[in-house]
Amino acid sequence: MTILSSNTIQEINNIKSRYPEGREKSALIPALHLAQAEQGWLPVQAMNEVAELLKIQPIEVYEVATFYTMFHIKKVGKYVIEVCRTGPCCNVGAEELIQYMEEKLKIKVGETTEDGLITLKTVECLAACGTGPVLQIGPDYIYQEQITKEKFDQLVEDLKIKGR
Amino acid sequence: MSKKILLQHINVPGINTLETYVSHGGYQSLKKAFSMTPDEVTEEVKKSGLRGRGGAGFPTGMKWSFLDKKTDKPRYLVCNADESEPGTFKDRYLMQNIPHALIEGMIVSSYALGAKTSYIYVRGEMMHVIRILEAAIKDAYRAGYLGNNILGSNYSLDLFVHPGGGAYICGEETALLESLEGNRGNPRNKPPFPAVWGLYGCPTVVNNVETISDVPWIINNGGDAYASIGIGKSTGTKLISACGNINRPGVYEIELGLSVEEFIYSDQYCGGIPNGKKLKAVVAGGSSVPILPADLILKTANGDPRLMSYESLSDGGFVSGTMLGSGGFIVYDEDQCIVRNLWNFSRFYHHESCGQCSPCREGTGWMEKVLHRIENGHGKMSDIDLLVDVAKKIEGKTICPLGEAAAWPVASAIRHFRAEFEEHIKNPDSCCKKHLHSEHALIH
Amino acid sequence: MDKLKITIDNRTIEVPPGTTILQAARMIGENYPPAMCYYTPLKETGGKCRVCLVKVTQSSEANPRPMPKLVASCLTKVENGMVVENETSTEVLEARKGVVEFLLINHPLDCPICDQAGECDLQNLSYKHGTEATRYEEGRREFEKIDIGDNIQLHMTRCILCYRCVYTADQITNSRVHGVLNRGDAAEIGTYIKNAINNDFSGNVIDVCPVGALTDKKYRFSQRVWFSKPFYAHRNCDKCGGEAVVWIKNNDIIRVTSRKDKFGEVIKFICNECRFDHKNMNDWSIENVYELDNDSVINANKYKHVEESPAVNVDAKFVSE
Predict the structure, then answer these.
(1) How far is the C-alpha of B79 from the C-alpha of B87, rounded, in Å?
(2) Of B9, B59, C216, C295, whose CB has the highest number of CB atoms within 10 Å?
(3) Hey, is the C-beta of A128 within 8 angstroms of any chain B C-beta?
(4) C118 and C211 assigned to the same domain
(5) Does the beta-carbon distance from C69 to B362 stay under 8 Å?
């Protein structure tokens, strides 16, 4: 029994065809995105199954999953709020806003709310410097720009309803 | 009104769709290109003087002509859409709003290079852009612009979008190729360059989104027409993403050669500094390039007006100049703290170092820690020269340019704003009133 | 193909095409650049540590321009008429000092309690190219020691991320279960999940490790390396050929390692059985004293004058089979 669904396995196999024969490993990052979208994070079993699908050693998957910041190798909340902490966003109030988010969600950056709904994470520049502060919410990764405290409150309310 | 090449139709409703794009002259360059030989297409790009818009400014036509065509191996074109340089958001804007401009550019450029399969490597965070591009590519296949025997030309091309996983370093072209091969984003030692040993060990060209999107116009109008726009060796137009303390942040297409003063103060562009504040400094080409104080960004050391061009911005070298870079234009008003901003950027480079070579792996963290100490009131006067020396020992010693990208901001901030660092150390509370300590200074 | 002429620190040598600057310098034989990550027996190594950076003042006879930056001598191929400065360049020495400093800021400065001391490449490197005091005042990276299997211990705190052990696992053993995890200065060697590095040739990661990050668990702290005496030895082994070095103290074999050349590189990798399971004197035919050419604190002429047959020193009945 695999933990990855047959749909995800099928999608991963489809993606392999984008790359030349013998270069299945190219599909690794797209495959990890798919596995994570399904599982919410990347348990070892999911990574091992990806390794098998791509005919590589499990360690090659771990090496990649731990290199890239988008992959959650520990369990996270149902939604991950990724808020930019880089210079231009800070110049328009990102730092104060992050502090507000911590207070509002009663967690620190890197933690998950008690109900398992939201993980708060800071990320580096999201290429939206003209419309900062910016955040995006995984697993869908929709950008939310020019965030204010009020907008953030609304976002959290929406997630609570959506996550029921 | 200066010349528009990329954003001419940006305000046309529905320009993101294939139909509207085509009705405004989109995909015209394919027919013209297919009537030429691939080498003739390359020759037009050479004539245009187009330079890499990702940051390095290397002549695009020359890069194409280095491609090793002697081997039997397949050749690849890979588009670098890993836009992650702080202050830079032009590629995202372009792909999101006019995705077909990039796709059209990819087809013509792939034809010139003899690529049968091409990839657009988009940073993973931009999932929304990936979805837009994938839908647009599907439409282009349906319209016969991609796939087998495009428009009866006998030329066939497959185009795929490939997502990254979250790593600034993958904007470095060899790290991008490693990542595309499913590896950690560790840059390769060069030589060999990708033109000889690129994707899967095959000859490969890696070009930025904006660069590739410029190609259709060049083919439609000729290299000479493009070269007649701009100033000197800075030909054509450039997308500038402007942010920071300005009235009108956003993406602007400028004709190269526009004066920096006009760019900052004209209502057509940044619209000046809000709330009657004074201009303090500018980072003109993404966070990696040297910061310049107000007087030096508006005028060169010789007193000439500073222009938005490769040559004028770098006039004076790093003593009094900077670089056009990616076009990420960050403006700081009088209230901004140089030390805090520098610490923030140093944290960025520390966080984004791949960790492969020792000077960058260890040096970026060291600089961040020292700056964090200064910023939090525990600095020593000797820290300033220590930072200068550490930056010097990273610069030029690393596998890839992330070393320089991390070192230049430190060196230039201290070069131009040393007094502010000294003041921070002497009177830690006098400068930044908004100290916040909730954030972790260190990686993870 | 014709040989290529290269001048390094005013000494000229002719080398075959494909030779790197580092290899050419080693052929000259004196004052060659140090190497902490490059390792001749392992493909794809090199370029990472940056201690071998040199200055190319003339690219070739055809192109007399200098190269714009210092280059990694371990990867840069010789061109005909190339002129290189290594120890004659203050720029090179200054850069090297910088790299040594970088390698040491997160490395514990506790050689007296490290098992690798005396045969540590980093220790030797800092003697030659480092400074006496450190300018680093920030916190250092630390990790717990991990047992990766019964025979090998990993102490990541000492690792300089040369990647040699990763290439060894890739190229010498039949499957790789460890690698480089995380990134930047948080990068570490590891298996991610609890896993033993255990196959016929995995013990070689100990020999290629330039520091005390990967050590022989059965030997660790049993003895200071300079209190034992190394001998060439061999035994019949189907797996690796059984050509090794045995380290003897008081007529006991206290450890077995592979043989290394004067550049500290393994000549022939040995199997785990030879390394870990044969510590009995009559397992081995013991030959001559193994001279340590390597520029190291343990050789300090210590073994150079031992001319007697090892049989004189060790009990004869254990020696020959």
Answers:
(1) 20
(2) C216
(3) yes
(4) yes
(5) no
